[in-house]
Amino acid sequence: MLHELLIYCPETGAFRRLKSSGPELAGTIAGTINSHGYVAIRVGGRRYKAHRLAWFFAYGKWPTGQIDHANRNKADNRLANLREASPQQNRVNCVRPSRRAKTGFMGVEAKRGKFAAAVRINGIRHHLGTFLSPEEASAVYQAAAKKAFGQFFEARP
To answer: Class assignment of domain 2-85?
Structure first.
């Protein structure tokens, strides 16, 4: 049914309506950005996230897990920007740092005048050491996170 109502362009990530439905005219771009920043498209009275629809249109099946936006832009649904991810991989590639990053560096906490680095992998917290500067602790954290999460981790403060 979706293929009768929408067409997807993998290069732009846009969906267009093939048929008019109420105020939505054929040929117009489908979807609106929801309160979480994702493009949502209403089809048959149900809302779908556009990145999941894009996966379905491209591969002919619904994604089994989560879909990650590689460039962290939730509204960028180009096929080259989408990849299947576990919940942990998706969290690693998020825009905001951890709420606990009061030092300004992900994976770094201030401890009695020093800076402790730790990374969480599969729910287990791994202590990486204590350092004299937050930059040094951050470098160790980022190396460990890159090793653990590969393409889903991008070094940043």
So the answer is: alpha beta
Q: What is the pTM of this model?
A: 0.72
Q: What would the pLDDT profile of 73-119 be if each residue is shown by its tens digit?
A: 999 999 999 999 988 888 877 755 555 567 888 889 998 889 999 99
From CA 63, how far away is CA 85, in angstroms rounded? 10
What is the per-residue pLDDT across 39-64, written as a single tens digit (0 to 9) for each? Answer: 999 988 899 999 999 999 999 999 99
Show the beta-strand stretches assigned E in 63-155.
Answer: 66-69, 82-85, 108-111, 114-121, 124-131
**C-alpha dihedral (100, 73, 58, 122), degrees to nearest 10:** -10
Which percentage of the chain shows pLDDT scores above 70?
Answer: 94
DSSP 140: H
CATH 3.30.730.10 domain locations along the chain: 96-152
H or E stretch including 52?
helix 50-59
CATH fit for domain 96-152, picks 3.40.47.10, 3.40.50.1100, 3.30.730.10, 3.20.20.370 = 3.30.730.10
